[in-house]
Every structure is written in C-alpha cells, then in structure tokens.
Design a protein that fits this description.
CATH class of the largest domain: Alpha Beta
Largest sheet: 4 strands, parallel
Distance between the termini: 40 Å
Number of domains: 2
CATH architecture of the largest domain: 3-Layer(aba) Sandwich
CATH topology of the largest domain: Rossmann fold
CATH superfamily of the largest domain: HUPs
Strand content: 5-15%
Oligomer: single chain
Order of helices and strands: HEHEHEHEHHHHEEHHE
Strand order of the largest sheet: 3-2-1-4
Structural class: alpha/beta
Radius of gyration: 19 Å
Shape: globular
Length: 278
C-alpha cells in the first residue's frame, strides 16, 4: 500500500509538506517513527529520497541490520556512516543534557553528508508525544534546522503505529527503543564496554521472548525493567537462572527487577522538574 491510499487531515498535511520539499534526506534508525517517515517520503518523492543512518556504539547491531534490510526491501538508497562516541563533546561524561550534544554532533555530520549528496532538506521522526518528556535533543534539532514532518502534521505515536499497520510496515508493533546510553544514569561515565554489556544483556532478554524491556546499568548492578504482565515469566526458575548466569558472565555483580516495570525514560525521573523545560 502507498501513503497516498491513506485518508485523514494529518496525512494530507504530511504528504503536502513532503511534496513541497521536492527532495528529502531522512535520518533513519529503523524505529517506528523514522520507518513510517521514510516510507512516506519515498512514496511521495521516489528516488529523490535518501536514508541516512549514523552508526555508533550506542546503537545495536540488530538495528543496523534492520536499517539495511528495510532499505533493500523498499528499494531506498541508504548511506550508513560511522560516528565515534569519543568525538562527541561531553558524551562520556554523561551530563543531563548529553542528548543535546549527541544530537547536535550527529545531525551536523548528517546534514553535511546530505548536502554533499545534493539534498537541501534533512528530516527526523519525532512525533507529538515526544514533547511530553525531557528531550534536550529536540533543542539541537531545532537549532540546526532539521525538519520534523510527523510532529508538524500533529501525528502521535499511536496514530503512527496505526498508519504503519495499514501500510503493512513491520514496525507497526515494534517495541519502543532508545539509544543504549539512555540506560546509564546521568553523571555516570559512559564507555563502549558498558554499552556492549547492556546490548548483550538486552539481547538475552529478547532471546527469552520478552517484548518490552530495558536493562539499566547502576555501576555493576543491572536493573531490569519489563512490563508487569511479564513479571511471572521473568521469575520462572529457568529464565531467572539463565539471566543470573549470563548477566554475571557479562560483568554484572547484582541483578535486580524493577517493581514499577518498564517505562520509557525512567532515568529522567531523577531530574528536577525545573530541568524538564529547556
């Protein structure tokens, strides 16, 4: 199905904006939002659409493969470029506005690459729900003049999932995800070794069949977040023993379960309310 087959005022606003651009480079992570945006842009602009993906230690190997698979399946031109996290200002120090510096550095590189490839406009996939949490990266996006077509059209995450399902996109029910650095509390230094530990730990949970999960790293302690409906399965003897054994092998000294369950951006709960408005 093509995006032009869908109806609705928000879809009309989105397609009209994209048509007016003529060509567009899209920051593509293979997540729910960027996949819908890329599919829509390609439906509207065809070969005048380009997918750009930054490859860094805070991104999983699975995500990079999903980027390649989707672009190949849809016939979309794609460029993946490396980013060394050690070159991102303040990234390893992990301040509360780490995401600002990270987004600014990466999108600056991405914008330069887009222009090198002949694209004047670069877009990313934030939606209206992203305005309700502490997201300093949005400030960097605004400063650099990156477009946010989904947000401008007034689309929420729920609506994007519904439209993605109608389009037959594999991401319509994909669990929400965030960069691996978001698993480390602000003020705790980030290293490639820590990110690799988290990636392998979450890969184990995925292999055990958990749908929505996070492994938060507190020094050498792993705090596991899963949906409360999956608590019993996390505590099943077989799964519990497997998690304990493999997490310790990865370098975790203590393994705990968060009784509040999964919630996106749980490490932002430690921030003072007055920081949440930048």
């Amino acid at each position: 199905m093509n995006i032009r087959d869908l109806k609705g005022d928000k879809i009309d606003r989105l397609t009209s904006q994209l048509e007016g651009l003529g060509s567009l480079a899209v920051a593509f992570s293979a997540g729910v939002d960027s996949t819908f945006l890329l599919k829509t842009a390609h439906d509207i602009l065809g070969d005048s659409c380009l997918a750009l993906t930054a490859c860094a230690a805070f991104q999983t190997a699975k995500e990079r493969q999903e980027v390649r698979d989707f672009c190949q399946k849809e016939g979309i031109r794609s460029i993946q470029f490396p980013v060394d996290t050690e070159t991102i200002p303040h990234f390893t120090d992990n301040p509360e506005n780490r995401c600002y510096y990270c987004k600014h550095t990466i999108f600056e590189k991405m914008f330069a690459l887009a222009r090198q490839e002949g694209f004047v406009h670069l877009a990313e996939g934030s939606n209206t729900d992203d305005m309700s949490d502490y997201r300093p990266g949005l400030k960097a996006i605004g400063e650099l003049g990156i477009l946010s077509p989904l947000r401008d059209a007034g689309l929420s995450k729920e609506e994007i999932r519904a439209y993605s399902k109608a389009l037959g996109l594999p991401t319509w029910n994909k669990p929400s995800f965030a960069c691996l650095a978001s698993r480390i509390p602000y003020g705790n230094r980030i290293s490639k070794e820590k990110l690799a530990m988290i990636e392998e730990a979450e890969k184990l949970l995925a292999g055990l069949g958990f749908y929505q999960y996070r492994v938060r790293l507190h020094d050498k302690m792993a705090r596991i977040e899963v949906d409360p409906s999956e608590f019993p399965r996390l505590l099943e003897d077989g799964n519990r023993q497997r998690i304990l054994l493999d997490f310790r092998r990865l370098g975790f000294s203590y393994i705990t379960m968060d009784l509040q369950g999964f919630r996106s951006g749980s490490l932002n709960e430690q921030l003072e309310k007055n920081i949440k408005h930048f």
